[in-house]
């Protein structure tokens, strides 16, 4: 899901094994991964805490917000947001004048880090928190670097619809976010509903309601909220990409396709949009187009929690390109060592290695 502040987050499980497809013709040695593309485009089950890892352990994220020349912004205190990819949880802080920021007591799992300041705009990056990414003291280090002027200026403008939202409604949204930081989803939902009662045009609140419903696997309700958000503000990006992901999760691929295409057209530099479109093409049987967008997603954010490497590996297996498939899976393991799917991916790699001599 993509949240109102621009940070994406995904949820429900979707197994690749459920996709109906003709056999590749590689005889009995043909192999399917049969695992979800770890949060494939807003709807699969992502890189979760490692098997055997304590889910009660908490970690510390330390990083910096930097310009493209690796220097901090001058006289700017950037806002930094941390949003969980698969559960309703978010926090925010201010980076110091040197660009440094810290989040303490962070549970393990996949997250999106986003930074925003009024002069430069926003930048986002995926981070997986767990024993495989942390040092011996439980610290995960990651920098947020603005790469282009187009990316930096994105979302600096404010729509007329947003400007019309009264302060009372904005305060309700703020209270909802504060409760989400304490994992009080029920309380947050109540404030969001109050927000849209006060301001039916409040697109951000509708989008948040849709996101919470999505993460709770209440997909028809999520669809309703996202459609209402788009009704109020047709050009709003978050509910567009989220509605596309919701329809995909409901196996309504033909409906999801044009929305995912529109999302990529609106924000070609969003790895979530690229991953969703690539995955939609994949499940519609258009592998060449799927590969293009999955590769773009990986290029934009190699650590992205949608794990495009797994679907790319699946595509290579269909083509009998064993070395390429293994390379994608090994890249996945390097970036998501604590994923619940890591053990199965390792087993698939070991099964494939003897087949390398049979591959064309």
**Percentage of residues in strands:** 5-15%
Q: H/E order of the elements?
A: EEEEEEEEHHHHHHHHHHHHH
Counting helices, strands and paired strands, the structural category is alpha/beta
Low-confidence stretches: 6-32, 34-53
Helix content: 40-55%
Any idea what the radius of gyration is?
20 Å
Number of helices: 13
Overall average residue pLDDT = 82
Terminal CA distance: 39 Å
Index terms:
14% strand; 360 residues; four-stranded mixed beta sheet; four-stranded antiparallel beta sheet; 13 helices; globular
Give a verbal description of the structure.
This protein has 360 residues and is of the alpha/beta class. The chain contains 13 helices and eight strands. A hairpin with a 5-residue loop joins β2 and β3. The longest helix has 15 residues, at 167-181. The radius of gyration is 20 Å and the shape is globular. The two termini are 39 Å apart.
């Amino acid at each position: 899901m993509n949240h109102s502040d621009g940070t994406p987050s995904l949820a429900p499980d979707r197994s690749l094994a459920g996709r109906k497809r003709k056999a590749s013709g590689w005889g009995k040695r043909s192999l399917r991964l049969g695992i979800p593309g770890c949060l494939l485009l807003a709807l699969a089950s992502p890189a979760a805490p490692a098997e055997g890892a304590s889910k009660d352990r908490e970690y510390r994220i330390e990083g910096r917000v930097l310009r493209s020349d690796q220097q901090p912004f001058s006289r700017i205190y950037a806002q930094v947001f941390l949003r969980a990819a698969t559960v309703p949880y978010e926090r925010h802080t201010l980076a110091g004048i040197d660009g440094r920021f810290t989040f303490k007591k962070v549970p393990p799992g996949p997250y999106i880090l986003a930074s925003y300041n009024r002069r430069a705009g926003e930048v986002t990056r995926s981070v997986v928190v767990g024993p495989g990414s942390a040092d011996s003291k439980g610290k995960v280090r990651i920098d947020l670097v603005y790469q282009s002027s187009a990316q930096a200026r994105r979302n600096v403008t404010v729509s007329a619809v947003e400007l019309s939202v009264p302060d009372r409604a904005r305060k309700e949204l703020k209270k909802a976010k504060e409760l989400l930081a304490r994992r009080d989803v029920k309380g947050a939902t109540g404030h969001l509903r109050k927000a849209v009662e006060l301001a039916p045009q409040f697109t951000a609140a509708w989008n948040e309601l849709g996101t919470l419903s999505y993460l709770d696997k209440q997909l028809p309700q999520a669809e309703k909220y996202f459609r209402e958000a788009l009704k109020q503000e047709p050009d709003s990006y978050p509910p567009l990409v989220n509605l596309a992901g919701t329809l995909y999760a409901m196996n309504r691929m033909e409906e999801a396709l044009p929305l995912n295409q529109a999302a990529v057209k609106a924000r070609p530099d969003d790895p979530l949009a690229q991953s969703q479109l690539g995955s939609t093409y994949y499940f519609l049987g258009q592998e060449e187009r799927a590969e293009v967008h999955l590769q773009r997603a990986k290029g934009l954010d190699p650590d992205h929690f949608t794990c495009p490497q797994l679907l790319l590996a699946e595509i290579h297996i269909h083509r009998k390109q064993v070395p390429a498939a293994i390379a994608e899976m090994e890249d996945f393991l390097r970036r998501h060592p604590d994923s619940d799917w890591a053990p199965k991916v390792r087993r698939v790699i070991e099964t494939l290695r003897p087949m390398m001599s049979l591959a064309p």
